């Protein structure tokens, strides 16, 4: 049972591979056992990569939801740091799957809508969201993240290790926020603020501060 799932640690997440001939039920049970046992690999905010095409679409979605419940990010596309910018970045939704093109020369990906729960946006560059980030949504960016609305989801800026990245929102209330390898969350009862806030790393800790647009 212990050899059904093999975990390979990467600088920017975890890659999972599976024993040949293992059934999906066995894989799911093995992963759940590892998650519930407090396995040191599975830390909240970590991105878990599962090879695309390993399972049927509904099985992949079941794994995505399982990892989300444990506060982890999930992807079927392995993105390596220090590569040339890709011709496009992916916007993933359970159904239908959506992909939005980004020109290689473009430095920022712009999403002109609210990102709903269950949706995931992944980009090698910075990301601008003209709308809210709802609970259950995930934003993963190689650069900074700017949300022209309320952020209540999971956000990960500087995903390839850039500690100078930041997260800005009109109202910053994330379930969990990560910049590079530093993880934090907003206070349970955030202070009322009359202007936008920015999350940055100071002294190896994520701090929230007011910022002018």
Write a compact overview of the structure shown.
The chain has 213 residues and is mainly β.
Structure description:
- With 213 residues, this protein is mainly beta.
- The chain has 2 domains: 5-75, no CATH class; 88-210, Pectate Lyase C-like (3 Solenoid), CATH 2.160.20.
- The protein has 2 helices and 17 strands.
- The protein has a 7-stranded mixed beta sheet with strand order 6-5-8-10-12-14-15, with no helix packed on it.
- Strand 1 (5-10) and strand 2 form a beta hairpin.
- Helix 1 (24-36) runs parallel beside helix 2.
- The model is unreliable at 80-106 (pLDDT under 50).
In CATH, the architecture of the largest domain is 3 Solenoid
Helix content: 10-25%
The total strand number stands at 17
CATH class of the largest domain: Mainly Beta
Please tally the helical runs, counting DSSP H or I stretches of 4 or more residues. 2
Question: pLDDT average, as an integer?
Answer: 79
List low-confidence stretches.
Answer: 80-106
Number of domains: 2
What is the quaternary state of this protein? single chain
Secondary-structure-derived class:
mainly beta
Enumerate the strands of the largest sheet in spatial order, edge to edge or round the barrel. Answer: 6-5-8-10-12-14-15
Estimate what percentage of residues fall within beta strands.
35-45%
């Amino acid at each position: 049972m212990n050899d059904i799932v093999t975990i390979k640690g990467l600088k920017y997440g975890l890659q999972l591979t599976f024993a040949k001939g293992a059934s999906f039920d066995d894989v799911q049970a093995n992963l759940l056992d590892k998650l519930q046992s407090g396995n040191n690999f599975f830390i909240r905010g970590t991105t878990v990569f599962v090879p695309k095409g390993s399972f049927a679409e509904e099985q992949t979605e079941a794994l995505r939801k399982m990892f989300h419940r444990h506060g982890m990010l999930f992807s079927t596309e392995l993105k390596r740091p220090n590569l040339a910018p890709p011709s496009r970045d992916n916007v993933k939704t359970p159904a239908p799957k959506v992909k939005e093109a980004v020109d290689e020369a473009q430095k920022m990906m712009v999403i002109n809508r609210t990102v709903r729960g269950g949706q995931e946006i992944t980009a090698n560059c910075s990301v601008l969201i003209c709308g809210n980030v709802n609970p259950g949504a995930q934003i993963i960016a190689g650069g900074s993240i700017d949300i022209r609305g309320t952020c209540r989801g999971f956000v990960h800026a500087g995903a390839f290790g850039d500690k100078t990245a930041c997260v800005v929102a009109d109202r910053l209330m994330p379930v969990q926020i990560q910049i590079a390898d530093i993880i934090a969350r907003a206070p349970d009862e955030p202070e009322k603020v009359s202007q936008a806030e920015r999350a940055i790393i100071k002294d190896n800790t994520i701090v929230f501060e007011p910022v002018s647009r």
